[in-house]
Inverse folding.
């Protein structure tokens, strides 16, 4: 627990130093007709004349109260904006993981069981592909091929209707999002009983999620594969067979159960990573999540925003890491020593 | 990954060019071809008359010929400024490879040393090293780059060097440092009590000498296996950061910023500005991964993609 | 396991079937007026507090009325009918104007320094003292007549002979729509007082230039007359009074939301609205859209559009896509290349009309190397103006002929073409470079805004042009905020470029005291100083008739051109991409869209 706190503190410290080591732009918020005196006054107000340590202390104390500062541009508290946008990112990440679970894990299992099989090769191929391709480029390619091109295909092939919506965020223009319950539009729409809307939001989710899944799924595939192949060749599996248990039972009972810890571990880590790491895909698809928010802050020299997002992403990752560690610790007696 | 036996290590240098399968050999050949491109890039324009393909000045815009599709004169078309995409994609090879190489060498080098030191010393040194690694690795790579740019992007401390380049190298180093540290440490940890280490201590070799002469060479195989993968990862990161706009000074060509320039065009149907640079990224990463027999998940949950 | 894999094809088939169903039902995202389902939903949302009356009055131009009326009957069940102000035909879809903007409006307090988009909204939702009248139609649009003003919250004005006293008669019968409070002289006094107290930016600056620095200069004669004493006589008093920050505010509401720590309601006003412009702020979903409604209390000329929606769409390509699909009617801030694409799209037209937008490069006159006037002149000859005008700007501009735009009323009036001496002449540039002491070239840095295609295009082209002369220019993109810091603090090393520079008022006096006065210039981003020009400005400040200004300004412009503090590249057109059924556009000198005159035809 102490270690967790130390790590978090270090995270905050690094993040803070990084974003404060350059000046904060003052003129932009003051507009035309300013003088030296006004600038000084503003700097005073913003506490920029204090030594860096004092500034840091103020920041940390605010942080512990949940105050991440205020956006220089919109004057909205950063914490508020992040709370608003985090569900958007979370929804995308959940769906990404869901898609990864659909392709990476079954292929990984198969590849672990039959390393020379066709599906193993397919999995490795997809993994190789996903690793080589930049996610944002893939997203752009998808948009071009699946949204832009179909209506413009020449006669014999098309024109086809554009299967996917324009890459403009979570819902189409003119469509109201559902009542906010969890912040995840698909879930909220289902809760409200509006299936059409749920389908609509789902459709907007597909391209970003698939893009992200293809590029972040390969490690899941590979870990599943190696975990399964290791489990399969372990002695207790042989023992189970010798008991006369059927192949299927062995598979589920021993192989999968023993192979799942590293996979679930990685899945949780991937989730934590994607919260911050999905920023490029968010930008490409105009997805209003915390990644886009950080980029927006960056473009406007709004350092509190950038720092806020970086911190939240890092904190989520660290917390997930520790939770996963704890769960593993609890589940696996071998780790307690 | 296990430490290779001495016999395999000796033969290893010769086996850089030929991989275990035909596919991998082809990939390695592709890499060396791209390396060649990277080296000759600056002279392409000077020798353009002798070349079978049309090369232009990569920095001279042609405002009267913007966004034109691929033709015989412009193999990959032109972008919004009228710059030839083909030339710039080829030139960008040099930029991306160099930045990736330097960043990985810097961060990786320091990481190896730190990892070996931590493995040797154990105790609280090891603990601190691990914590540092955890802290550094808890930042999502791209956001770390973002924060670095927010901080250092406008400072003048790097002198005549292009700011963007310096910060990119810095970001890559910060990502690779914990990676190498962890790998090297995990390989060397079991060796601390090994006999040859005891022997060296008896011979009077200081801690640093032991680390440098005995420890690190044992991790050599591991490091060499890691190097191409992290370079590939670095290329992805550079492209990713440049895509958000945090990259080298314009109008110098770089794959990520070229994709970015083409991003707004691709939804209008002008695909060539984004597609070709991306294809080259795919080729570089694909060719670099041809050096590793089995690329396990060495680089964390994000894989090697940005 | 084998059993599971066998099922895969059927799973795929099911998913494919679902996909086809989805496409059939969902289809594309376009929202058109004729699609029944969508109209209903939008009407329900839009028409919340709106006055909708079941009785429909047929207006002669409308043909489509009958079919839509039937829809309306269904809708009125869900609408709250408050009071009948005016009988309107509810063809709300056609009467909704959707505009795609690049960034959310920052905040709504006129007193704070503000961005282009904020100015746009303030101009339309607050009521300024006066506004320009539209000029005659010149092919589907009109220029604002900068010599003709109509009163808004001021009904009429009178200048004394020496122009130092202004009598303002307030318009009676105005109401603040959100609170129902009447607009009174108290509100006028409060607005001016607040402006002065919350300065120095915003309306305080404007009032300062009119000569009002203290509320004591405003005398309240009676409930409908105010007198401004000791005003500064100048030609720009009325143009200044139509500045978007001069809107009258509801003092009762603001005071109710003020606290001891915040006596002027600044916190409240950032996110809230207390005005009575032609449009009022109805809803504001931060970061996604702002909805404005026609002001129901305004009894003058009625704007065509009942609702104006401003949609925040950060990606320019997406704004273009929305325009092409008809999901928005106007898309702001498109690049030159995107405008070309838009112009070629069905159902879209691009308005490109001569304007005073100056594509100018700023030079730091106070730091090497450009503290050397000969070198600055050399650069002015080094620029390939044709490449910029016809290449980068795609012909949507004319070459510049100095600090006063060729499209300014005063350019011809004062024959300012005589002052312009530069053209693309590399030999002359080399000669001047040698004279300045840099015969073999030199290096410097240009600062531009990041992610703006125009900035990058201009910079890249200039870099190549200068490279021909042995000059090594490096380009550094910075954020908008950092750019301001560099400009105001004069910390950029060589050159800076931030797109077009458009002075809100077309008057040389305005430009000179904005840019070139070495003591008081509001935005002296070049660090320029010339004693003789300061003298001329002092002498002509209070001259309000043209004959007395002609010669002094001719001299001032000539001196300015000789000193080459900026590179004046081109005068770009005003461009606006919109659906081709939108009309009634009036171009104001400040380049901010005025929603009230827009309409949709057929």
């Amino acid at each position: 627990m102490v270690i967790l706190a130390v790590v978090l503190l270090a995270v905050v410290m690094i993040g803070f130093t990084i974003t404060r080591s350059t000046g904060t732009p003052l003129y932009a918020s003051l507009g035309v007709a300013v003088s030296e005196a006004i600038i000084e006054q503003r700097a005073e107000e913003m506490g920029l004349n204090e030594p860096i340590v004092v500034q840091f202390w103020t920041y940390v104390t605010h942080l512990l109260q949940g105050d991440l500062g205020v956006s220089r541009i919109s004057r909205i508290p950063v914490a508020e904006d992040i709370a608003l946008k985090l569900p958007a990112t979370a929804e995308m990440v959940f769906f990404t993981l869901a898609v990864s679970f659909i392709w990476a894990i079954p292929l990984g299992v198969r590849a672990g069981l039959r390393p020379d099989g066709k599906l193993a090769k397919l999995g490795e191929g997809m993994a190789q592909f996903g690793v080589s391709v930049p996610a944002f480029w893939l997203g752009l390619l998808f948009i071009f091929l699946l949204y832009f091109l179909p209506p413009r295909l020449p006669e014999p092939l098309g024109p086809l209707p554009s299967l996917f919506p324009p890459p403009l965020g979570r819902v189409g223009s003119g469509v109201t999002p559902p009542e906010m319950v969890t912040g995840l539009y698909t879930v909220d729409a289902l809760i409200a009983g509006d299936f059409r809307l749920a389908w609509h939001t789902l459709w907007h989710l597909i391209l970003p999620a698939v893009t992200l899944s293809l590029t972040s799924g390969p490690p899941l595939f590979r870990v599943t594969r190696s975990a399964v192949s290791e489990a399969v060749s372990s002695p207790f599996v042989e023992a189970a067979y010798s008991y006369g248990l059927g192949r299927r039972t062995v598979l589920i009972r021993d192989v999968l159960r023993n192979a799942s810890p590293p996979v679930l571990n990685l899945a949780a880590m991937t989730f934590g990573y994607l919260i911050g790491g999905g920023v490029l895909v968010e930008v490409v698809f105009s997805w209003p999540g915390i990644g886009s928010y950080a980029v927006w802050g960056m473009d406007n020299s709004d350092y509190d925003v950038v720092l806020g997002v970086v911190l939240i992403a890092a904190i989520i990752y660290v917390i997930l890491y520790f939770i996963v560690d704890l769960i593993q610790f609890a589940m696996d007696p071998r780790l307690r020593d | 990954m296990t430490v290779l036996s001495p016999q395999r290590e000796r033969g290893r240098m010769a086996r850089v060019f030929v991989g275990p399968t035909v596919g991998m050999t082809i990939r390695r050949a592709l890499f060396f071809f791209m390396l060649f491109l990277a080296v000759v890039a600056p002279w392409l324009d000077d020798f353009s008359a002798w070349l079978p393909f049309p090369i232009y000045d990569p920095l001279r815009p042609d405002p009267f010929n913007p966004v034109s599709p691929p033709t015989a004169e412009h193999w990959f078309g032109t972008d919004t400024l009228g710059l030839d995409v083909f030339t710039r994609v080829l030139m960008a090879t040099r930029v991306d490879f160099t930045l990736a190489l330097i960043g990985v060498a810097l961060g990786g080098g320091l990481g190896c040393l730190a990892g070996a030191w931590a493995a040797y010393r154990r105790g609280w040194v090891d603990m601190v090293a691990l914590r540092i690694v955890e802290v550094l690795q808890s930042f999502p790579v791209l956001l770390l780059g973002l924060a670095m740019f927010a901080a250092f992007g406008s400072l003048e401390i790097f002198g005549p060097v292009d700011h963007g380049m310096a910060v990119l190298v810095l970001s890559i180093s910060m990502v690779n440092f914990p990676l190498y540290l962890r790998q090297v440490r995990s390989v060397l940890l079991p060796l601390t009590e090994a006999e040859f280490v005891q022997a060296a201590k008896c011979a009077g070799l200081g801690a640093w000498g032991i680390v440098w002469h005995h420890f690190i060479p044992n991790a050599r195989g591991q490091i060499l296996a890691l190097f191409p993968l992290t370079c590939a990862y670095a290329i992805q990161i550079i492209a990713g950061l440049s895509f958000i706009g945090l990259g080298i000074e314009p109008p110098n060509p770089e794959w990520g910023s070229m994709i970015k320039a083409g991003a707004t065009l691709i939804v209008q149907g002008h695909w060539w500005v984004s597609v070709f640079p991306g294809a080259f990224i795919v080729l570089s990463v694909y060719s670099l991964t041809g050096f590793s027999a089995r690329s396990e998940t060495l680089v964390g949950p994000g894989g090697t993609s940005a | 396991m084998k059993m599971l894999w066998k099922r895969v094809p059927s799973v795929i088939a099911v998913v494919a079937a679902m996909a086809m169903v989805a496409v059939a039902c969902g289809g594309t995202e376009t929202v058109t007026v004729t699609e029944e389902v969508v109209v209903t939903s939008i009407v329900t949302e839009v028409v919340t507090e709106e006055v909708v009356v079941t009785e429909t009055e047929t207006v002669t131009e409308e043909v489509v009325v009958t079919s839509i009326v039937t829809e309306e009957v269904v809708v009125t069940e869900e609408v709250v009918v408050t009071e009948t102000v005016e009988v309107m035909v509810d063809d709300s879809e056609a009467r909704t104007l959707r505009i795609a903007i690049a960034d959310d409006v920052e905040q709504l307090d006129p007193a704070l320094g503000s961005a282009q988009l904020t100015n746009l909204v303030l101009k339309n939702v607050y009521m300024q003292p006066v506004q320009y009248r539209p000029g005659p139609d010149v092919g589907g649009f009109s220029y604002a007549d900068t010599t003709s003003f109509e009163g808004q919250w001021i009904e009429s004005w009178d200048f004394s002979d020496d122009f130092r006293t202004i009598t303002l008669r307030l318009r009676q019968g105005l109401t603040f729509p959100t609170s129902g409070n009447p607009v009174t002289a108290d509100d006028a006094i409060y607005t001016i007082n607040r402006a002065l107290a919350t300065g120095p930016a915003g309306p305080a600056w404007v009032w300062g230039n009119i000569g009002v620095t203290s509320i004591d200069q405003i005398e309240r004669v009676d409930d409908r007359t105010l007198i401004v004493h000791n005003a500064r006589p100048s030609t720009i008093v009325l143009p200044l009074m139509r500045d978007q920050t001069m809107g009258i505010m509801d003092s009762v509401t603001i005071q109710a939301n003020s606290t001891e720590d915040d006596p002027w309601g600044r916190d409240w006003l950032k996110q809230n609205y207390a005005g009575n412009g032609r449009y009022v702020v109805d809803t504001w979903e931060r970061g996604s859209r702002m909805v404005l409604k026609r002001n129901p209390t305004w009894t003058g000329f009625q704007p065509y559009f009942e609702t104006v929606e401003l949609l925040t769409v950060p990606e320019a390509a997406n704004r273009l896509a929305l325009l092409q699909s008809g999901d928005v009617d106007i898309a702001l801030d498109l690049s030159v290349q995107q405008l070309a694409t838009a112009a070629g799209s069905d159902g879209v037209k691009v308005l490109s009309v001569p304007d005073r937008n100056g594509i100018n490069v700023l030079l730091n006159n106070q730091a090497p190397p450009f503290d050397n006037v000969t070198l600055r002149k050399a650069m002015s000859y080094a620029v390939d103006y044709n490449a910029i005008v016809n290449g980068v700007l795609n012909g949507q501009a004319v070459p510049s002929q100095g600090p006063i735009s060729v499209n300014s009323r005063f350019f011809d009036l004062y024959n300012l073409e005589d002052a312009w001496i530069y053209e693309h002449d590399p030999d002359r540039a080399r000669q001047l470079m040698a004279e300045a002491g840099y015969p073999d070239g030199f290096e410097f840095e240009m600062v531009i805004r990041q992610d703006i295609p125009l900035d990058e295009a201009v910079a890249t082209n200039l870099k190549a042009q200068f490279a021909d002369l042995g000059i090594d220019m490096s380009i550094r993109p910075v954020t908008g905020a950092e750019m301001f810091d560099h400009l105001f603090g004069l910390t950029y090393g060589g050159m800076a470029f931030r797109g077009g520079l458009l002075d809100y008022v077309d008057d040389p006096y305005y430009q000179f005291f904005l840019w070139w006065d070495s003591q008081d210039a509001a935005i002296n981003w070049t660090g320029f100083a010339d004693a003789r020009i300061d003298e001329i400005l002092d002498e002509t400040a209070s001259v309000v008739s043209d004959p007395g200004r002609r010669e002094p300004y001719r001299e001032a412009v000539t001196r300015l051109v000789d000193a080459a503090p900026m590179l004046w590249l081109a005068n770009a057109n005003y461009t606006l991409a919109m659906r081709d059924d939108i009309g009634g556009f009036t171009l104001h000198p400040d380049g901010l869209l005025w929603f009230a005159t827009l309409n949709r035809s057929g």
In short: The CA atoms of residues 59 and 65 of chain A lie 10 Å apart. The mean pLDDT of chain A is 79. Chain A has two domains: 1-65, 84-286. The first helix of chain A runs from residue 2 to 20.
